[in-house]
Amino acid sequence: MFSKYSLLLIAVTVTLPACGSDGGSEPGNGPDGTQAPVCSGAGKGIAVGLSQLGDEGLATFELVAANPAPPEQFDNTWTVKVSDSGGMPVAGAVTFADTWMPDHGHASPKAITTTELADGEYVLEPVNLFMPGLWEITVNAELSDGTVEKTVFSFCLNGEFAITGPQ
Predict the structure, then answer these.
(1) CATH for 38-157?
(2) Structure confidence by residue, pLDDT tens digits, 65-111
(3) CA gap 160, 26 in Å, rounded
(4) What is the pTM of this model?
(5) Rounded to an integer, what distance in angstroms lies between the CA atom of residue 88 and that of residue 23?
(6) Cβ atoms within 10 Å of 153's Cβ, excluding its own
(7) Helix %, strand %, coil % for the chain, to 5?
(8) Percent of all residues in the chain with a pLDDT value above 70, rounded to a whole number
(9) What is the DSSP string of 35-75?
(10) CA nearest 95: which of 81, 112, 69, 114?
(11) Alpha-carbon span 121 to 56, nearest angstrom
């Protein structure tokens, strides 16, 4: 009934819309042909100095450095400080971080590596934001008692720049 090429065409046609246009939210789809914001108003926002309480209220996560700042498309490096409920730095935490695009249902193709510095600071790299859109970066810290605390940094990488290809 269907050739293997017909089935391939159907599969590609069904799969592509997952990361495709949503009627004006992709860059270049503004009403006058200019770039339209990808996710204007979505997310909590991101900036150096942003501090968030973990989900369990046992630790605070602060973005103390970002390169570049604000985040840009492709590889970024973040430094996150983890402090306990008393404000003391959490040294020796087992940390890990993940990327996620909730509107597209996928993560970045690159895994984030965490490296401990001093005074409860951890470098996350690469924070690979390979496409414009709403990103969630989840940072987890396993505390000395085995409790895992986490927070989600949620922000829009809105595509108001040229997309130059993979880096």
Answers:
(1) 2.60.40.10
(2) 999 999 999 999 999 999 998 999 999 998 999 999 998 999 999 99
(3) 10
(4) 0.74
(5) 47
(6) 22
(7) 10, 40, 50
(8) 71
(9) PPPSSTT-S----TT-EEE-TTSSEEEEEEEEESSS--SEE
(10) 114
(11) 20
